[in-house]
Design goal:
This protein has 81 residues and is of the alpha/beta class. It is built from 3 helices and 4 strands; from the N terminus they run βαβαβαβ.
Length: 81
């Protein structure tokens, strides 16, 4: 089964590189950003993650990530804290 990892983020730039490194075996990584002002989306893109953006709120962020996913399995992870 192919797995899409979905990470809701909000100003997680400092934690994101290590988190994405830990998920490198996922078939797809989607960062669902809720309006970060610290460069989180740019860092995620530079590390190979797909980024979707929108309003903050865990439910909305997870839904956006799930809608963008292409794999049959979904792994939802909290922001990498």
């Amino acid at each position: 089964m192919r797995i899409s990892a979905v990470l809701p983020t909000l100003n997680d730039a400092g934690l994101l590189p290590a988190c994405l490194q830990a998920l490198r075996e996922a078939d797809e990584i989607i960062v669902s950003d809720g309006g970060s002002c610290d460069g989180t989306p740019d860092i995620a893109r530079s590390l190979g993650a797909q980024v979707v953006t929108g309003s903050p709120g865990i439910g909305a962020q997870l839904a956006r990530g799930a809608d963008a996913a292409c794999c049959e399995g979904l792994l939802f992870l909290p922001a990498c804290t």
